[in-house]
Specification:
Layout: E1 19-25, E2 30-36, H1 43-57, E3 64-68, H2 87-106
Parallel strand pairs: 2-3
Antiparallel strand pairs: 1-2
């Protein structure tokens, strides 16, 4: 659990973490907003998510906006000396982002 001591772990899921996506198009410009139930994202991860989603949306990565709810109930998605990033979850997160963007484009 992000932000807690290493031995402070969850033992079950109370509520699923979500990624909400919204695609915007004014006829001239397109943008995608993604909101994560996570504490935060590393700069490298932000660039990776934006680039992956931009390919799917056929837009500039700068038009992908990411935000986090800052929940401490999710896995570590930022790297700090005392709390390494959960790399196995990060790989799943990239896939979740792709799916969120595809879902946002359908509506």
């Amino acid at each position: 659990m992000a932000g807690y001591p290493r031995n402070y772990v969850s033992y079950k899921v109370h509520d699923d973490l979500l990624i909400s996506g919204l695609a915007l198009n004014d006829g001239n410009n397109k943008a995608v907003l993604l909101s994560f139930d996570l504490i935060g994202l590393d700069e490298e991860l932000i660039h990776r998510i934006r680039n992956e989603c931009a390919i799917i949306c056929a837009i500039d990565p700068e038009n992908i906006v990411l935000t986090c709810t800052h929940t401490h109930s999710g896995p570590h998605t930022t790297s700090r000396e005392d709390f390494p990033r959960n790399e196995s979850y990060v790989e799943k997160l990239i896939d979740y982002c792709r799916e969120a963007v595809k879902g946002a484009l359908k509506t």
